[in-house]
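ok so I'm stuck.
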Amino acid sequence: MILYAPWEKAFKKVYTPFEHFLHAQTTTGLILMGMTIVALILANSPFYELYQHIIHTKIEFDIGSLQIKNSLHHWINDGLMAIFFFMIGLEIKREILVGELSNIKVAILPILSAIGGMLVPALIFMALNKDSIGANGWGIPMATDIAFAISALVLLGNRVSPALVTFLVALAIVDDLGAVLVIALFYTSQIHFDFLLLALGMFLIMVSLNRFGIHAILPYFIVGFFMWFFMLESGVHATIAGVIAAFTIPSKPKIPPIDFTQQTKNLLDEYDNYPVATDHTMHEQQKAILQNIKDRIDAVGSPATRLEQSLHLPVSLIVIPLFALANAGIHINFSSIGDVILEPVSLGIIFGLIGGKIIGIAGVAFIAIKAGLAKLPQESSMSQLFGVSALGGIGFTMSIFVADLAFVDAPALVFQAKIGIVTASLLAGLLGFIWLRFIATK
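replied:
not stuck anymore, here's the structure
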């Protein structure tokens, strides 16, 4: 007989579906969309000056003789977003080890499509901004926002095959890896090699912890924090530390699953040997057995898996919404919006994210399939792949992030870029959804 505290049974009925809802990618997309709307409303309301004052409030930290003083906006983009990039690193590592990218025959299509979906938008942007002050923004239309794109596919239900959803996830993971490399290699203005060497030293310590079989999270967190700090001071964007740190987290369990099964059965048998107390309390030895089972459950799951699962909610509910709130607040002069959209930077992003992604993803996929290098995802068609390619044009989170790096001392260009990103992401999302919902056939 299962014993419930008052209201516990009713609470479980509400809690369990809600928990699953929060973990879904759709939730991340909806929360991100909601916070973006809030940011846009604040930036175009009487609260605009207060909004700007808050996000540019200076926050100072003193570490010995070192003093770090940056705005709240900066701390969100360099600090909190490092956690987001850490989770991206964990996702990339998982996909490479056991996911869709672990089998080259399956992975070749999303890999080639992702490369095409990064190169073609960048080339289109460069063609429209060659020799102009906005040329440095070529990396902006390369990115795909996985939360928004997956949300659109999930809303389509069974009209899209699971294999096509998997294709988009794998493509977005490769896209994220490409964006990380672009940020590290091309959006670093000045490097302080003394701090970079210290960051490298922290990375080697984390690798050593992995090789020595350390599965506790705390040592990695402490060393990883110092690596982030040294990376911040080195001039290389600090969020890169999150991705690098993720690759040092152990991905193998401490206890093999086959051993876990038998040992847990033995412990459960031992647990059942103790008589049930009349007041339904456990024997002290039973408590020890349950703790032993809990420790084994933790040991049979890898630290990388546990971290990815535990970070999903904080990143979805705190990090990404705060990033959107701090970065999507565009103060729009509606009388001049038409002129802003026609600026080369905005046009480069709009044509890059919409036309560039479709040509790059669907075009490269078509060539790869016709050449026999890859196969279409199961139960899908080129028409559906075209629709998914359009959804790949939803750049948003990563595109905004790159825009702030590309035009760090040019607020007018950042404004043009954000107008282009929001416009392109909205149009790409609508095009992809309408195409897959009403036009595409299997």
